[in-house]
Structure formats: C-alpha cells, structure tokens
Design brief:
Layout: H1 2-19, H2 33-46, H3 48-51, H4 76-85, H5 105-122
Helix pairs in contact: 2-5, 4-5
Length: 126
C-alpha cells in the first residue's frame, strides 16, 4: 500500500510540474511578450504576404498553424534554415520558398517567438 501511495504521489507531482510549465496542450511555452511584439512587426513585413497576416496561409504559402509546424516536426531551426537558404517544396504544392534576405539572427528569433506564441494560443490545424 505504501508503494502504491508513493507511486501516486510521484505521478501527481510530475503532472503538476508539467502543467505549471507555462505551456499548454501544444507543449509550447509562453514566449517573451516584447520578443513576440517585435516578431509580429517583422512577420508582417517579411512573411505575411505568403503565410498570411493571421498565419493561416495564402495562395502563395502554407499556414504556420498547420500541424506540420508542430515543434517536434519543424523545430525552430527549420524556420531559420528556411529564411536563410529557402526550402524546396515538400509538403504542399506552393512551389519552392526563396530565402528571405535582410533578416538578422535576432530578427529570426523574434519571428519564431511570434509564430510559436500564436501556435500556443490558437493551436494547430489538421
């Protein structure tokens, strides 16, 4: 009985620790508000034309709220690589993505924070 109680206690503490991590069902932690605000401006200027101002995509590019962009499938580094060297079309038929010139590492960090915070809040589309 003591062993069962100990297991239940450990399970409960683990569950509590996971649920208080600042994330939610997406597993994405809350992003820094200043970084998200800066990322919003940069996203609108550099990404929204193809990926939509609401991140839901356009006829030129996919939605960043697609389940394809869950961090376990396309991690943050995938966004960096896409911006730096472009991406060959592989999930959709929008054509290849060209590199995005003029974005610094800090700019990309802010854009990724904006995207991840919106994914955290809005969830993912199937």
């Amino acid at each position: 009985m003591l062993r069962l109680t100990t297991i239940a206690l450990v399970f409960g503490l683990t569950l509590a620790a996971c649920s208080s991590s600042g994330g939610d069902s997406t597993g994405i932690p809350v992003q820094d508000a200043d970084l998200v605000a800066a990322g919003d401006v940069l996203y609108q200027a550099n990404c929204a034309e193809c990926h939509g101002s609401d991140l839901r995509g356009t006829d030129k590019g996919p939605s960043h709220l697609s389940i394809v962009y869950v961090p376990g499938h396309h991690g943050d580094q995938a966004f960096v690589v896409a911006a730096r060297v472009g991406v060959r079309s592989h999930h959709w038929d929008f054509g290849n993505m060209a590199p995005v010139d003029g974005l610094s590492d800090d700019d990309l960090t802010a854009i990724i924070a904006f995207v991840r915070e919106n994914q955290r809040i809005q969830g993912f589309e199937p």
